[in-house]
Design goal:
This protein is of the alpha+beta class. It is built from two helices and ten strands.
Length: 220
């Protein structure tokens, strides 16, 4: 009887391969998703009829010479009124002058601005004002009334006198000396040339007070 032992070897394991048709379906699904995303983006872009226009960043009075701080970009649907408002595709109309008041967040109409050369003549007058004698947060573009109270021996005498109504604020400086209530702020006002002498003469008559004119209201 033979002592040899017969060893039966198992067949080598074979890797189960994923069917090629499954890879093809996955690739097709990915391509369909990408196509849907691209087509959807194009449809949304085509349906967006909004235009970029300039919008007033704050209340602006008539006669304001526009600066970059006065405007911001906005996107709106104009529905065929493209030429009515100033487009923001280019640079802002800095230096142009408002022919009428424009409210905060209002679209800037083309008809409401004019070039500096075509705007009514004006002059800039710096008015020294104590911080507690002017409205808080006074900003360029606002309109003010200028009052002067006569002084004698360092004391105020008499009743405040209105020397100019409806001046447009061009800029507001900082205190000229420290932060005390006695320091002065230089407020630059826009006035017609014929009003300069009256305004300057009145400023020398005593202490100055600036009174804010609310938007939409006329001077006293």
């Amino acid at each position: 009887m033979s002592d040899s032992t017969t060893v039966q070897l198992s067949p080598p394991a074979q890797r189960v391969e994923r069917p090629r048709w499954l890879d093809l379906r996955m690739l097709t699904g990915v391509l369909l998703v990408l196509v849907a995303v691209v087509v959807g983006a194009k449809v949304v872009a085509a349906s967006d009829n909004s235009e970029s226009v300039w919008v007033a960043a704050r209340d602006l009075a008539a006669g304001t010479q526009l600066t970059t701080d006065d405007l911001r970009r906005g996107k709106v649907q104009l529905h065929g009124q493209d030429g009515r408002y100033v487009s923001a595709k280019g640079s802002p109309p800095v230096g142009y002058v408002l022919t009428r008041a424009v409210g905060r967040d209002e679209l800037l109409p083309v008809a409401a601005i004019t070039s500096p050369g075509e705007a009514p003549a004006f002059r800039l007058v710096t008015v020294p004002v104590a911080p507690l004698h002017m409205p808080p947060k006074l900003a360029p573009g606002e309109r003010v009334e200028v009052y002067v109270t006569a002084k004698a021996a360092g004391e105020r005498t008499g009743t405040p006198r209105l020397i100019y109504a409806g001046a447009v604020v061009q800029s507001v400086g900082s205190s000229s000396s420290g932060l005390s209530a006695s320091s002065e702020v230089g407020v630059v006002l826009r006035v017609p040339p014929e009003s300069v002498s009256t305004l300057v003469a009145g400023l020398r008559g005593g202490d100055v007070d600036l009174v804010r004119i609310p938007p939409g209201q006329g001077p006293s």
